[in-house]
Design goal:
alpha+beta; binds nickel (II) ion; about 30% helix; five-stranded antiparallel beta sheet
Length: about 180
């Protein structure tokens, strides 16, 4: 397993539309293992393959939600191969999102609060389930990546430009700190 570099905005590689995964094989499972290691190291709760430069329809999620409030996070790794949204609710909820490709920036995004999704896991089993709550938000955010969309694209132009400006400023500060 290896930690892979995460591509950050405004890199055009994040705008590529990912291709369907052709086969769930050992090569794919090696990539999945690397993606989990990269995500846990970052740390984050979701990562799409395109964010590590592999434009295929694959993403991993681990909400690491504690079993009880204030408790220790419990790992709950989930793999989504070729995910599709079959249905979504008309009602939407706000959630303050962040993204490993837009580091240290957060903004409120509105998304459907319930979805019905179909996907395969890392063994090739197919699932079809109704999903709600944080997992629904996270899955929609990660699936956007597969279509070259970032969470900041859901904001007004003014807010998006503000986030990108703050990101550039943050990068400059990081570079000064490292110098
Ligand atoms: Ni993201």
């Amino acid at each position: 397993m290896a930690i892979r570099p995460i591509i950050e905005a405004p890199d055009p590689r994040l705008r590529v539309v990912s291709e369907p995964v052709a086969a769930v094989d050992d090569e794919l499972r090696a990539l999945i293992a690397d993606m989990f290691e990269t995500m846990y190291d970052a740390p984050g709760i979701g990562l799409a393959a395109v964010q590590v430069g592999v434009p295929i329809r694959l993403l991993v999620i681990d909400l690491q939600e504690p079993e009880e409030e204030g408790g220790e996070p419990v790992r709950d790794p989930r793999v989504f191969v070729n995910p599709e949204i079959l249905w979504h609710s008309d009602s939407e909820v706000p959630y303050t999102e962040g993204c490993l490709s837009v580091p240290e920036q957060y903004a409120e995004v509105m998304r459907p609060d319930r979805i019905r999704a179909r996907w395969q896991d890392g063994k090739g089993n197919t699932y079809e389930e109704d999903i709600e709550g944080l997992l629904a938000v996270c899955l929609q955010h990660e699936m956007d990546h597969l279509n070259g969309v970032l969470f900041i694209d859901h904001l007004s132009r003014l807010k998006r430009d503000m986030v990108l400006k703050k990101l550039a400023k943050w990068r400059k500060e990081q570079a000064l700190k490292a110098a």
